[in-house]
UniProtKB/TrEMBL annotation:
Residues 94-306 form the AB hydrolase-1 domain. It holds the Pfam family Abhydrolase_1. InterPro entries: AB_hydrolase_1, AB_hydrolase_fold, Pept_S33_TAP-like_C, Serine_prot/Carboxylest_S33. Residues 406-482 form the Peptidase S33 tripeptidyl aminopeptidase-like C-terminal domain. It comes from Nonomuraea longicatena. This is Alpha/beta hydrolase. Keywords: Hydrolase, Signal.
């Protein structure tokens, strides 16, 4: 689900009985699944299939309208996958798995989840995956962002931020112009319609759905539009039900600042190892001095990484599982060396169809998902003022331009969606200390869409499928039994 490409997930949903185009919800799949799916083994069909020794997963291409308001117009291809139930005699249905994004491939989800704590669901359910439109093996466009340029020494923080904003605007203008009709249709709303086209192609009246991070936005959007076609739905590490980019940045800063305060005490207790100070106050002063030093003289790594004050702030809000790595990186930079995590390698390519490899982040799809339906982020002065205000409220981690930074120069106004309460069985799970998709978002989504909320006692993004209480997920999909209360998290 964060927005500096390495953390962000993404969000979104839409109105109940009427789609954003004004079409009734039932029209969402009109003209979509006109051809049967031609299933073939992924390992021999999809070039460089990334799941080792996978002899079971099948792949196919699903044809859908590019624009569901024009179902007889241009079509696009969506890459889908299937892992058939291991025990056909016990098969009770299908579960679509949407593990995250935007901007990244999801098609290997069935094979991946069959190997984790949810794997027993693969005995009595077909597990279904797909690459959302715009990424992976599905139809997309290739358009690299403009490379960053190192600002002259002494450039102010605001001028640096404005240069990044302007570069993003230029990239967005160039990339959307490559195929504006296609980019305009890269929305969570349309991905949900694609899921329903897949349901129809599978020949089932209802689907189960398991979503994580940005996949929760796809799921809750689907439930908003097609509630009567949902069997059971579980969403973990839930996206905000309101796609307000400035508000999302503020929520993330608040969570990160709380983690920062705990990180100070943790570092103080490990001064013999990291040498930042023996009290929280000493650690704070040392870390802030390092941040100020890097703001004055950033450490530039190759052509793509700039280790400056914002880089330091980004490390300070990690959940406890990332504290040791953050401490190592901070200590390494303090000594004038480049941390391993910041070393750059060759960029992965973005490709088309089953004839090539679906590696890398598709930044055009990433930006489109947030900007076509999310509000905010268009005006630099507003973005900057909002960031400075958050920096005052949250001095350790606040003030970074996260979600609100990617919509510079976006050529279309946002068409926001709205979540509504449904009747189909819905279970949510949120992680109390999480930064990527803060726990408050799960609470807000439950208030908007209904369902039962399970509180996971950790700060690990999407960890539920790796925990003992994944048994609750298995029980839910087999019996419909929901779970409130709390669940032990990752230690």
């Amino acid at each position: 689900m964060p927005s500096t490409r390495h953390l962000s997930p993404a969000a979104l949903t839409l109105a109940a009985t009427v789609c954003l185009t004004g079409l009734p919800a039932e029209a969402g799949t009109a003209g979509a699944a006109t051809e049967p799916l031609d299933w073939k083994r992924c390992a021999t069909t999809a070039k460089d299939w990334p799941v080792a020794n996978d002899a079971r997963t099948e792949c196919a291409m699903l044809t859908v309208p590019m624009d569901y308001a024009d179902p007889r117009g241009r079509t696009i291809k969506i890459a889908v996958s299937r892992l058939k139930a291991g025990d056909p005699a016990r098969r009770r249905g299908v579960i679509v798995i949407s593990p995250g994004g935007p901007g990244i491939s999801n098609i290997t989800a069935p094979a991946s989840y069959a190997a984790n704590a949810l794997g027993t669901l693969a005995t009595d359910h077909d597990l279904i995956g797909l690459d959302p439109r715009g990424v992976g093996y599905s139809d997309k466009i290739k358009c690299a962002e403009d490379p960053p340029a190192e600002p002259p020494p002494g450039t102010s923080a605001k001028a640096r931020a404005k240069a990044v904003f302007d570069r993003t605007a230029a990239s967005n203008k160039r990339c959307t112009a490559t195929d504006p009709d296609f980019v305009r249709q890269l929305t969570t709303t349309n991905i949900a319609r694609d899921v329903d086209a897949l349901r129809a192609a599978l020949g089932v009246p209802k689907i189960g759905f398991y979503g994580v991070s940005y996949g929760t936005a796809v799921g809750l959007t689907y439930r908003t539009m097609f509630d009567d076609r949902v069997d059971r739905m579980w969403v973990d590490s839930v996206m905000s039900p309101v796609m307000d980019l400035h508000a999302m940045d503020a929520t993330m800063d608040a969570v990160a600042e709380k983690s920062f305060e705990r990180f100070l005490a943790w570092l103080a207790g490990r001064d013999p190892e990291y040498h930042f100070g023996t009290t929280a106050a000493e650690v704070r002063a040392t870390v802030f001095a390092l941040r100020d030093r890097l703001d004055r003289k950033p450490l530039v790594v190759g052509k793509g990484a700039r280790l400056d004050g914002d880089w330091v702030s980004g490390l300070l809000g990690m959940d406890p599982g990332g504290w040791a790595a953050a401490a190592r990186d901070l200590a390494t930079v303090r000594e004038g060396r480049v941390p391993r995590s910041a070393r750059t390698g060759p960029a992965a390519s973005q490709v088309f169809g089953f004839d090539d490899t679906p590696l890398g982040m598709n930044t055009t799809q990433y930006n489109a998902i947030f900007c076509n339906e999310g509000t905010g982020g268009r005006d630099f002065e507003q973005v900057w003022a909002d960031a400075r205000a958050r920096g005052q409220r949250f001095p350790g981690t606040g003030g970074r331009i996260e979600f609100s930074g990617w919509c510079a120069g976006w050529p279309w106004p946002a068409r926001p969606w709205q979540q509504v309460t449904g009747n189909s069985p819905l279970q949510l799970s949120g992680h109390v200390g999480e930064f990527v998709t803060p726990y408050d978002w799960a609470v807000d989504a439950g208030n908007a869409a209904g369902g039962t909320l399970l509180t996971v006692q950790d700060g690990a993004h999407g960890s539920l499928s790796r925990l003992p209480c994944a048994s609750k997920v298995i029980d839910f999909f087999r019996t419909g039994r929901t779970s409130g209360g709390t669940c032990p998290g990752m230690q």
